[in-house]
Amino acid sequence: MSIKGGPGDGAKLQAAQQKCSPILAQVLGEGVGRMDAGEHDRLVRYAQCMREDGIPMKDPTTNGQVQLNVPPCTPESTVKRAAETCKQHAPEIPTPP
Questions:
Q1: What is the model's pTM?
Q2: d(CA 14, CA 20)
Q3: Tell me, what's the pLDDT at 51?
């Protein structure tokens, strides 16, 4: 998973990464690099759903890497709505608060 910020976001991103690392470890667990085809297809459906809801997101890699690209100035409500709508495909991916 890759998270990118804008200028001046370094400290916020680092704090968020530290706070969320236990959740990420639970989501990724021991399966990193060992994704089966069904799991990959499910994450592809999640990415397609996010794109349909206005969030440009690449399909996951075959090892399970998911990259969410939220353009600057995207309304927070758009991100939350898309994540909530698409959660059915990947319930382990946290919905933004």
A1: 0.63
A2: 10
A3: 92
